[in-house]
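User: Can you write out an input/output pair for a complex, sequences first and structure second?

Assistant: Here is one pair. Inputs:
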Amino acid sequence: MSVDLQTVKRVAHLARIAVSEEDAERMTGELNAILGFVEQLNEVDVTGVEPMTSVTPMEMKKRQDVVIDGNKPSDIVANAPATDENFFLVPKVVE
Amino acid sequence: MSDLTHLTISEARAKLRGKEITAAEITEAYLAAIDRANPALNAYVAVTADKARDMAKSSDARLAKGEGGALEGIPLGIKDLFATEGIHTQACSHVLDGFKPRYESTVTSNLWADGAVMLGKLNMDEFAMGSSNETSYYGPVINPWRRSRVDTVVMPTTHQGDGGFVSAGGAKTTRTLDNMQLVPGGSSGGSASSVAAFLCAGATATDTGGSIRQPAALTGTVGIKPTYGRCSRWGIVAFASSLDQAGPIARDVRDAAILLKSMASVDPKDTTSVDRPVPDYEAAIGKPIKGMKVGIPKEYRVDGMPDDIEALWQQGTAWLKDAGAEIVDISLPHTKYALPAYYIVAPAEASSNLARYDGVRYGLRVPGKDIVDMYEKTRAAGFGREVKRRIMIGTYVLSAGYYDAYYLQAQKVRTLIKRDFEKVFAAGVDVILTPATPSAAFGIADEDMASDPVKMYLNDIFTVTVNMAGLPGISVPAGLDGKGLPLGLQLIGRPFDEETLFQTAYVIEQAAGRFQPEKWW
């Protein structure tokens, strides 16, 4: 399988990365080189093979459903580019 | 007194406990070495001199009372991927500009609890995506090793620090260094370069497809990626969560064992952290390997592999045989599919993990006309080319209609790769010996690799299988190539059998000797 320019632009939008026409053209070539490289996986017979979900056979650990952390909103927003009274500020999303 | 920066961790530990030296002295020696060398090597992206001095002072107080921890007063460098409270943590990406976490990763917390001293944060490929440390927002790291102009160099049995060495035949060769700048490998290039150039006693690193072992091999240092689940991933910037593992890069096998003991732990904050006590890895060093079964996988003999690497592999096999190990030929038939499967699984997980960098909660924000425009502009400006490439591949293979063809197929192939190893271990093989990399260090801005991303990816051809199967792997320096550059051998073990890796790697180290670059920086 290979991708064309339109697909690259669509994927870039899905990934929320702005691309120029020039970027998209360069990426088309690069992505096709990688997709060409991974194509060889199709020759592997995977009949009856389960997809890997965990490299180590283990049960997911569960912890007690109790509060062990919290009450530090100022820490949470400390690194944000724009905040107001412990809220993250973003451009207007609701008209 | 000899240069304190040239002491191994075990040597420094003895001198600190014996009160022959102080933590303050060794810390000052490293800070001075970093000051002198960093403009040339670019290994550190942040030096925490004040914090290092404070930590050293506390270490000296504890040592004076005889209360020192396992790493008391040992100065370490920390890869920029580990969250360090109040200190530069950016995964060497522009998108995390100014990020100073309000928490500390579990691995670094463990190191400080054992008394280690932090020198600063180490350069790396952006978000650990790269094999040459050239994708860092902070520029490439330079390998302290350089090619020599001598073409015929016999693999040395002993090494002298003056740049000349005694060959197996006993003839002394003097080298003239070439000026060409070489990469230290990646993604843990800053960790490997700083350890090799004596800018820290040891370093933390991480390995998703070979990012500890490949740079260790390219710089003549020892690097171990432990079993998946051995070190907590909590507080480590995520790349591909099912593959990422932390581990140390050190100057010798013993130091790597000492560091891993402190880094590893059982951590309730990481659900994939395994509930097994951490063994005393150092105790495995020096144990005989007589009767151990060492597997040599035929699939690791790849087309176009340099003769030097083939010779090194045979030499390593001979050393283990001489030490009493039984050598057996084995087959890992799905080896060639590990790298292509990795380039689906890792980008898929990365595209999901890196969705969080949206200009809202931390780091860079580029204003836009609405929120989506802000996201797109922030991510376009914040991520470098390689990171964007991988996010794009990951987004594509997970997108509607392609999931089964790519991601599901890759995860099935991954099951087969793991099964290959399980069969070999079930047949009684204790450890597998392979080359660590398909070549020695290459030049900065290598044209071949710059023009074709897949060429760069092939650097990880021998290491990536280990991540895909969640196994432990160690890279140990084993010799120099014809141009005087270090080469490493890789040992792969059973899950949670890091002890066998240290035990066997030590045998190779004893036979090969240790290697250090001639100082030019």
